[in-house]
Amino acid sequence: MHTLLLRPTFAGRLSPQAKSYKTIFACTQKPLSVSRVRFSTSPKVDAKNQVYASVRNLDQFHTYQLLSASSRTPLLTMWTASYCPTCRVVEPLIRELVESGVGEAEGGVGYCEVEYDAPDVMSAGLGMTYMINALPTLLSFDAQEAQVETKVTDARKMANRQFLEEWIRTEARRHGNRGGGGGNFLSNFFGKSK
């Protein structure tokens, strides 16, 4: 957001008391008050979930990571492949949840599928970089860092709507702060504070 400073100018306004040229001249010598106008080159957007196109190369992946990091929202990635039948069952459910607004109240998320078997993704070694050893895999990125402690590879959990809603909300609470998304390390022992 930018701030525009308007400089004082002299107004040639006629007031009801202006009866002569001297009165008009006196009115024009008063500077207007200085005001600040805030403007932005983009409209203010509430925290909404973003669904991106499928990732088929390294540049797309890094672009989505940067968009996510700059908006301080986690990027949820679903690692899938064309030969994965489970992926085709789970992906519509996750997409539906993100598009319906799950996680927006907590700050919003970005979502994309990473096509693991795309030639550019394979040659870049993204799967090896982020330890993707099963398909489908859900992996969250916060401030461009993979959150491997919350990675989900169990297809039964991914088919559970309630589990997915809670997972998305937990990831959305990160707000670019990295970490566990909703508590501190003591919450594991003493319960989460509300």
From TrEMBL:
The record ties this protein, via InterPro entries, to: Thioredoxin-like_sf, Thioredoxin_domain
Under the heading SUPFAM superfamilies, the entry gives: Thioredoxin-like (SSF52833)
Q: Which domain of life is it from?
A: Eukaryota
Residue ranges constituting the Thioredoxin domain according to the UniProt record? 30-173
Designated name of the protein: Thioredoxin domain-containing protein
What organism is the protein native to?
Answer: Cercophora samala
